[in-house]
Amino acid sequence: MSKKTGIILSNLGTPDAPTPPAIAQYLRQFLTDPRVVDLPRWRWLPLLKWVILPRRAARIAKTYQAIWTEQGSPLAVISEKQKHALQQALNARQIEAVVEIGMTYGNPSMESALQKLTDQQVEKIIVLPLYPQYSSTTTAAVFDAFAAAMKKQRRVVPFEFIHSYHLNEHYIHALLQSIKVRFKSDEFLLFSFHGIPLRYEHQGDNYREYCKQTVLEIVDRLGLTENQWGLSFQSRFGREEWLQPYTDQLLTHIAARQGVQKIAVICPGFASDCLETLEEIDGENRALFLRSGGTSFQYIPALNAAPAHINMMLELICARL
Questions:
Q1: Is pTM beyond 0.90 here?
Q2: How far apart are alpha carbons 77 and 52 in whole angstroms?
Q3: pLDDT tens for residues 62-97?
Q4: Nearest C-alpha neighbor of 260 from the set 269, 250, 273, 248
Q5: Which phi-psi region, left, alpha or beta, contains residue 164 (left: φ > 0; alpha: ψ -120 to 50)?
């Protein structure tokens, strides 16, 4: 008799609603994680509670409202599609496994995902953080959430934790497939990744190197020359220096000073479209590029629930069964 395996798909998470109170609750959990903000608690927590949350929650609520769907936030909706597609793929291979979603922050939580798998008496758990490029701010935060949830279980089953997959052949294939059907030869191809503070890199986070390796593999297979592509980092927060070049500054520079008029932007580090891709990239940065002299801006969607992406998840899991 084969043993049932539990699969946890994990991503950052999302507010329960596009309202200031729901967003403040989500941001409170997110921004109090030392993996994300490692400032001294005595200095950071009062600032977060009395200054950042009141202002940021109200402002972000408007941007969430612009992308919210009838089914919920794009990240939540896409995650459900990924879960069901992966479950179907496992069933098609007659693999006895059950898939659950466990977000690092918000709902469905990692604790709820683990409890559902425990209730189904799985004999092994595979945790797949949907972050191709490891970072202490993302993948390690998933591990912390899983460990905290597991700490409450009396029975700890064997588990495997997928660290990263930035050069996995199925991941690279899925990206190439997505780019080739959308990218035009007269466009500049920009790879934009979520940023992290530069200080984290100095402390040992190899995230930038993983991002570079992914990009170099893609541009090599596409046969692009150095002046046809770029790599940048988005979504910086606070006053300290983050990984550079910054996406917004690069877009302004190449449009205004280098005369690049047509651009395609892809965000390979995002497994699902969310606020940072739909509103920041395809909204704010699109407008910025066009105001700076660009004439054409194309956002290449995240891999989401594309068959090639689901197949990548399936192969990553099957390799550990």
A1: yes
A2: 28
A3: 999 999 999 999 999 999 999 999 999 999 999 999
A4: 250
A5: beta
